[in-house]
Design a protein that fits this description.
By secondary structure, this protein is of the alpha/beta class. It is built from 7 helices and 19 strands. The strands form 5 sheets. Strands 1, 2, 5, 6, 7, 8 and 19 form a 7-stranded mixed beta sheet that branches. The protein has a 5-stranded parallel beta sheet with strand order 10-17-11-12-13, with helices on one face. Strand 1 (7-12), helix 1 and strand 2 (33-35) form a beta-alpha-beta unit.
Amino acid sequence: MAELDSGQFIIVGSGPAGHTAAIYAARANLEPVLFEGMLAGGVAPGGQLTTTTEVENFPGFPAGITGIELTDKLREQSERFGTEIITETITRVDLSSRPFKLWREGAETEEPDTCDALIIATGATAKRLGIAGEDKYWQRGMSACAVCDGAAPIFRNKPLVVIGGGDSACEEATFLTKYASHVYIAVRRDAFRASQIMARRAENHPKITVMWNTHVIEAKGDGSVLTHVVLQDANTKETRNLDTSGLFYAIGHTPNTAFLDGQLNTDETGYLVVKPGTSLTNVAGVFAAGDVHDKTYRQAITAAGSGCMAALDTEKYLENLAAEEHERASGKL
């Protein structure tokens, strides 16, 4: 394991938020260290973007770019400006006093890494159902982000299925009607959990069919892409096939905040809470960026912008900290 002395600045997380923060911080000569994780949350370094095939809505790539290619470019740009990238996962922290302490996976009983400022950019992991065929056809017709992937050519003018019963399911189904020939919503119960206005909008849409009391139990295809799903009636247990080119999960995300052990304020679903209009958490010197606190937009471009904010907030914090320490040393405090 590489040794790391106490430094000014550590970033935990390696998606667009983490790398954008690193780029801004490195260019400001803050010498950031970025822990990109080793399959943290079951996802490769780079976060949820690595599970996306074609990215067509990130500015600067008119021909599109794959999620893995984009994360590789972000990483390359971080390193170009001097970011030290460590491919290990942070599993425990102590934010009770400065310098903050961070322990790496497998080294929780050893001396921790320390820093004066910390950006949490660990993202949120899309919930999955673990149905048969999911691993085989994930990103081959299966997705957890309609806004990210819905406009892809494989989904255009094809029947699509959305799983979920809340506002997200209704919103994503309605969004997909722009591209699909028809959209089916598989709802496990006999009613939506969504707000009335969202539920009515979905139920009344001419290109949406709601399938009540319906479980999707298997994803099937031709070995290359998804071609149909197996549905099961929740009451009778009868099964049937439904042809579809796309299966979208709209069952929520899990913010990757468990390693913080409640030391930062979160909302009722575990997302970090920041001071509005900033990246500031309830602990001075700790900042949040990206999907770990954003449960509304969850886009690569908004995560990148959030990373920029966190880096600028961190730079200001460290400047103020240095000024205070100088005044204290000179007897002015």
